[in-house]
Structures are given as structure tokens and as C-alpha cells.
Specification:
Elements lengths: L6 H16 L6 H4 L5 H17 L4 E7 L3 H7 L5 E6 L3 E3 L3 E2 L7 E11 L10 H7 E12 L9 H6 L4 E6 L15 E6 L2 E7 L7 H14 L9 E6 L4 E2 L5 E6 L3 E7 L1
Parallel strand pairs: 1-10, 3-7, 4-13
Antiparallel strand pairs: 1-2, 5-6, 5-10, 5-11, 6-7, 8-9, 8-12, 12-13
Helix pairs in contact: 1-3
């Protein structure tokens, strides 16, 4: 029996999808349904990904999460995870975010890579991976768990598409060779107050290493990255709760600014 036919995994996927649609929280699925392996958690996420694809929603990229030790400590997990980005999740610099469409959102500052070519090989060389990157932009990821009070394990967040809800991209692309990404400094302000700082090295030591891991892992799982897709390479600092009325502004040295307002 394939994962798509497993009645328990199908049920959990439906519960998560319903919670997102109804904007309500649920108890941890790791406890309620005994989900205790990363493989089962990714299978649940894949069921909901396939349903969105069947509904005609376009994939726009992939994300790696839990790359920052600070965020791992916040959530009590000890390894990164990955998820899928869709066109209905994408926003641009300065956009308003509909807070009512979210449950318990938090914001993270990230470096985003945009690909100039497909990555089909599950084991590309470092140089092949670098050649695939067209440019880099500043980004905000809006994460939003369906699990009550963010009381998640790695299994809960993986099953919930790595707790990804929306993302905001900066509008000034920069060439990869013009940056020293591990040394970039990040500042996040909400309503003019500094709430988070970090550096490129916070994402698995280097944002490119983080993105490289993601590209290889997604290709090995038959979800290869495609030309034009976005890689969100992981948070550069702690995630911060966002509320209606908040104005979020992120600056990353060498990449400029990106912002949004929660309406």
C-alpha cells in the first residue's frame, strides 16, 4: 500500500487541510494520530501538495525551515525541514497581508534564491548548483502553524508543509557573485521597533549550503527544483509573532529591504 492509500495518513492530511481552510487550530497530530516518523510526516504533506496541484495551483518554489539554531530552540526541534511554495502564497514588497486568512502567524527574515535552470540531478556538484542560481533577493516568510500554540514536534511541522503560509519577495534582484552571503547582516523592524537581528551564517552556516541541501533533498524525493522557482533558504533570526496592523520591514546588507503590512 502506498502512502496515498494509507487511511490514517489520508485522514491526517484532511484534518490539516480543514484546519487551514477553517482558520482553526488543532492538537498536535503527532499525539492525536501517533505520527512518529519523518517519512510519514512528509507523506502527509505530499498528499495535500498533490491535492493543490490537482486543483491547478502552480508550484513557485521550495523552502527549507528550522535552519537557525535560535528557531530550533524556540520550537524544540533539532533538524531542518522542507516544504513547497505555491503561487497563492506569493506576495511582493509593500503588499498588504490579509491577517484574517491566517491562524497564528509569525514572520522570519530570509535570503531567497531564484533559479535560472532546472535541478534534476539528485546529487549535483557544488559548481552545478551555483550555476543554476540566477539571482538573490531579500524575503520575508510568514509561517503559520495549525497546531495549537505552536506546540509542535518535527513531525507536526513537516506534515503541515513546514508550517509555511505566505512569503514576500524583495524587488531588487542581485547577482550571486556580488555578495558574501555568510557575512550579510539582517535587521527586522516591526512598527519601527527592532525585533530581530541575524546574519547569513545563521542558516546552516551559509545560506547557499542550506539551499544546496534543499535542492539535493527535493530532487531525491522526486520534487526537483525548476527554472524560475524560489528557494527560501531559512530564517536568519528568531521568528516574531505578527498581528493585524503590524508593519514589517526587513533589511539585509547587500540585498536591500523588503516589507509588508498586516491588514
Amino acid at each position: 500500500m502506498s502512502f496515498s492509500e494509507d487511511p490514517t495518513l489520508q485522514e491526517v492530511a484532511q484534518v490539516i487541510a480543514n484546519a487551514r481552510r477553517q482558520r482553526k487550530t488543532i492538537d498536535p497530530i503527532s499525539k492525536t494520530y501517533g505520527i512518529a516518523t519523518v517519512e510519514d510526516a512528509y507523506a502527509i504533506a505530499r498528499i495535500n501538495t498533490d491535492l493543490k496541484l490537482k486543483a491547478g495551483v502552480k508550484v513557485t518554489g521550495k523552502k527549507i525551515g528550522l535552519t537557525s539554531k535560535v528557531v530550533q530552540q524556540q520550537l524544540g526541534v533539532d533538524q531542518p525541514d522542507m516544504g513547497v511554495l505555491f503561487q497563492d502564497m506569493e506576495h511582493l514588497n509593500g503588499d498588504e497581508i490579509d491577517t484574517a486568512s491566517l491562524i497564528q502567524p509569525k514572520v522570519e527574515a530570509e535570503i531567497a534564491f531564484v533559479l535560472g535552470q532546472d535541478i534534476d540531478d539528485p546529487n549535483p556538484s557544488w559548481s552545478e548548483f551555483l550555476l543554476s542560481i540566477e539571482y538573490v533577493v531579500t524575503a520575508i516568510e510568514i509561517v503559520d502553524s495549525v497546531i495549537k500554540d505552536w506546540a509542535i514536534t518535527i513531525y507536526d511541522t513537516v506534515a503541515d508543509n513546514a508550517s509555511s503560509a505566505l512569503y514576500v519577495l524583495g524587488d531588487q534582484p542581485v547577482g550571486l557573485g556580488a555578495l558574501s552571503l555568510s557575512e550579510t547582516a539582517m535587521q527586522m523592524h516591526i512598527n519601527g521597533q527592532l525585533v530581530s537581528v541575524g546574519a547569513g551564517a545563521s542558516s546552516l552556516g551559509h545560506p547557499l549550503r542550506s539551499a544546496y541541501w534543499l535542492a539535493r533533498t527535493m530532487a531525491a524525493n522526486n520534487q526537483p527544483l525548476r527554472r524560475g522557482e524560489v528557494i527560501l533558504s531559512g530564517s536568519l533570526g528568531p521568528m516574531i509573532p505578527a498581528r493585524k496592523g503590524d508593519i514589517v520591514d526587513v533589511s539585509i546588507s547587500g540585498l536591500g529591504r523588503v516589507g509588508c503590512r498586516f491588514a
